[in-house]
Write a structure and sequence with these properties.
- By secondary structure, the protein is of the alpha/beta class.
- The chain folds into 2 domains: 3-115 and 242-309, FAD/NAD(P)-binding domain (3-Layer(bba) Sandwich), CATH 3.50.50; 118-238, FAD/NAD(P)-binding domain (3-Layer(bba) Sandwich), CATH 3.50.50.
- Helices cover 25% and strands 27% of the residues.
- The chain has helices at residues 14-25, 60-73, 124-129, 138-141, 157-167, 186-194, 289-309, and strands at 3-10, 31-33, 47-48, 58-59, 77-79, 83-87, 93-97, 102-110, 114-116, 134-135, 150-153, 173-176, 198-201, 204-211, 215-222, 228-231, 235-238, 242-244, 275-277.
- Strands 1, 2, 5, 6, 7, 8 and 19 form a 7-stranded mixed beta sheet that branches.
- The longest helix has 21 residues, at 289-309.
- NADPH dihydro-nicotinamide-adenine-dinucleotide phosphate binds at residues 119, 153-159, 161, 178-179, 183, 240-242, 284-285.
Length: 313
């Protein structure tokens, strides 16, 4: 027997929990599936200082516990499980959880987020998860490295943006580029090249992150000459792209070539009526907790209107 609900929210980052707060307060009785990283990407950051309302900053995991508590306070049912399959072919949206539970949802809010890509080298994850000086978000964590020498790896628009952001805070920013050219848009390349305190290391790969509890330097290798160089950086920013967590929707929803869900202008509506997208799963430009929360709110309001238009609640 399938379970029938009015509003299913998939994902538990700022977008999902904000959608849940609004949906629960609108009496839509939302059920939220957390996915396999309850709390989302913020649970692997340390302090969050740019989310309004926390004048002294707050730990990422703690902030997400606050989000959850607020959503639950109004009656959101939170389930620690994954949604593994969907069928959006009819007016009732069919969804399956990993334990086989079949859910028929009048509305679905997708807030599955995106995952930063990592290099996969030794100590990278450890430093990233323990405030050791490795991060995938300069806007989030760059401030902690003010006045220090740092490195960014990557050569796209994100890496360029991160390097430029850091160059205003740090005396020296090393940009580690694996080829002899950058993928970033011409204008971003121009800005990076014009910035005096950004030093580009072409044809270079990061070989080692040095340090015990915290990063003290990195070793990079020139892949043409095999020359090894040690850079005395205390911050290492990985900006080699993100991957939206949208694979299970590919047969049903419009997405761009990299998998970001496409929403209709000025709304959270996808191409399937009753299915809405919010947060990083549909945003490859801003990717901030506060913008994700904003689009989560939009999705809940759009879902509420949809239920009203269909005469469901
Ligand atoms: P991209 O996929 O565009 O770039 C990833 C970069 O990381 C590439 O230069 C790639 O190198 C490099 N890279 C990938 N894997 C490795 C690795 N293992 N080691 C070293 N380097 C690696 O991702 P972005 O996040 O930069 O951008 C994603 C999309 O978002 C783009 O369309 C971009 O234009 C857009 N964007 C737009 C912004 C804006 O408009 N303000 C801001 C940020 C992003 P290589 O080139 O050799 O493959």
């Amino acid at each position: 027997m399938a379970e029938h609900i009015h509003c299913l929210i998939i994902g538990s980052g700022p977008a999902g929990y904000t959608a849940a707060v609004y949906a629960a307060r609108a009496n839509m009785k939302p059920v939220l599936y957390t996915g396999n990283q309850p709390g989302g990407q913020l649970t692997i950051t340390t302090d969050v200082e740019n989310y309004p309302g926390y004048p002294n900053g707050i730990g990422g995991p703690e902030m997400m516990m606050d989000f959850q508590a607020q959503a639950e306070r109004f009656g959101t049912e939170v389930r620690y499980s994954m949604i593994t399959k969907v069928d959006f072919s009819g007016p009732v949206h069919k969804v399956w959880a990993e334990d086989g539970t079949e859910i028929h949802a009048d509305t679905v809010i997708i807030s599955t987020g995106a995952s930063a890509k990592w290099l996969g080298i030794d100590k990278e994850k450890f430093f990233a998860e323990n405030g050791g000086g490795v991060s995938a978000c300069a806007v989030c964590d760059g401030f902690f490295f003010k006045g220090q020498e740092v490195a960014v790896v990557g050569a796209g628009d994100t890496a360029s943006e991160e390097a430029l952001y850091l160059a205003n805070l740090c005396p020296k920013v090393h940009l580690i580029v694996r080829r002899d050219e950058m993928r970033a848009s011409k204008i971003m390349q121009k800005r990076v090249l014009a910035k005096e305190n950004i030093i580009i290391h072409w044809n270079s790969n990061t070989k080692e992150l040095v340090g015990d509890k915290k990063l003290t330097s990195i070793k990079i290798e020139n892949n043409k000459t095999n020359e090894l160089t040690e850079l005395p950086v205390t911050g290492f920013f990985v900006a080699i792209g993100h991957k939206p967590n949208t694979g299970i929707f590919k047969d049903w929803l419009d997405m761009d070539s990299t998998g970001y869900l496409i929403t209709k202008a000025d709304s959270s509506k996808t191409n399937v009526p009753g299915v809405f997208a919010s947060g990083d799963a549909q945003d490859n430009v801003y990717r901030q907790a506060v913008t994700a929360a904003g689009t989560g709110c939009m999705a809940a309001l759009d879902a509420e209107r949809y239920l009203g238009e269909q005469g469901i609640v």
